[in-house]
Amino acid sequence: MVAGYGAVQWAGPLLSLILTPVITRILTVDDYGASGYLQTVVAAVSTVAMFALPQALATHFNDRPGEARWQGEITGSALVIVVTSGLALGLALAVAAPALGAVAPIIGSHVTLVQFLGLTLCISLAATVLVNAAQDALRVRWGVTLSLTSLAGTAAFNVLFIVVLRLGVTGMLLTPLVVNACVLVVALVLMRGFIARPSRQTVGLLLRSGAMLLPTTLSVWSLTLADRLFLGQWVSEAELGYYDIANKIAGLTYVAMAPIYTAWTPLALAMQHQPLAHIRYVRMSRYLVAAVLAIGLFLGLFAIEILIVLTRPAYFPAAPYVGFLAYMHVFSAFGTVFTVGAMMGKQLRSVSAGVLLGALVNIALNAVLIPRFGLWGATAATIAGFGVTPLVLYGLVQRRYPLPYPVGRMLVALVIQFALLVVGLFVPAIPALQRVAIKLAIFALLPLGLVLIGMVTPAELRQAGAFLSDRARRLIR
Questions:
Q1: H or E element: which one contains 66?
Q2: Can you say whether residue 274 is alpha, beta or left, with left for phi > 0 and alpha for psi between -120 and 50 degrees?
Q3: Among 189, 195, 317, 299, which Cα is nearest to 250's?
Q4: Is 43 exposed, middle or buried, given 0-12, 13-18 or 19+ CB atoms closer than 10 A?
Q5: Domain spans of the chain?
Q6: pLDDT in tens, 384-398
Q7: What's CA 35's distance to the chain center, in Å?
Q8: Closest CA to 293 of 458, 403, 450
Q9: Global pTM?
Q10: 249 and 303 in contact (C-beta within 8 Å)?
């Protein structure tokens, strides 16, 4: 059942991908870019208003194991906080929207929409808290029900608001809001006997924990979304649309790797005291990095072909950015590998330090590069910010909990993959079959290079091939 819950959660990004051809054939590139920018503005306010409560809730949820009254009390206390902060900061956003519109043209064109999103901000925050509480309580049926509600609502309201009513930017922003409202209603019905009265002491506990965790949460937000705020001041809405769709295609790396991350981290922590566990960690680190490099290269090489299938010609200028934006997920894989060591060594501050420094580098480079280089400046800043995080994490963790990761081979593999990606950019605009054949030949050089440097052995490739063949035969049957 837990596996099923994880699969439903993973299906969210996949559903977003499936809906992309529908959305991009209706929305203009300008509308796509404007909606992404406005979502970033709302996400910035939401991140502050949320006050890192999902993490704080998870930290203290089992302080009194098996005591349902405590779990209900801490859930009710978290709800009070997010509703209060959501109403306060949402009202502030609504009041400030006209002034923000004077300096940000995209907001200026949608002031009323931004005000409405501010006034309803607490809905999404409350839904998020209850979904996390259901997960922390290990109520799998609740979790699956809420996830299925979210998936069904996302599909239905995208069709209603964007395809049927043709609401454009408004439809893109209304869809997640209405979906979260549905999730909130379902959660309140499911958990009506679970949520208990809040207490002043518990509210204080959550606020103190949230204050400690908020800098890390804001840093993660900055790494993933802050570039849009800078871009909104320097590039057109169409260019913002190119950047958003390129990020969506690059995000397929996460869609492919998320089930592996979900399974590996708890498994690694469970086996940490077993003999020769470090050998398994090293082997798995090679596999993770090799897999994410292969996925990133594939997406970069075949970006234009993917865009042809998922979008229309107006979005094709996004293609060159896809492979490079995939490096945020490549470096996240490095971070996943090193974070396991940090968690085993109880060095959570090292994780926070890595993320915070990466965010600072990202913000500084966005400010310097975007005015001069536009989308390429944002891409470079994103790569650098995500690259700093695992670098810092590795240096800090290895001092206290050293593991023999094959860092040299990982870096050589990264250089090989980058070189192949750059070569792929120079494939000319020739007939499709010839173009695809050349790109497949370039892609085939990566596994060859990985074998030559020892990232993957021939025996491991044969085992992987046999496994995939067996799975394919079972699916056919």
A1: none
A2: beta
A3: 299
A4: middle
A5: 1-198, 235-336+406-477
A6: 999 998 998 888 877
A7: 18
A8: 450
A9: 0.86
A10: yes
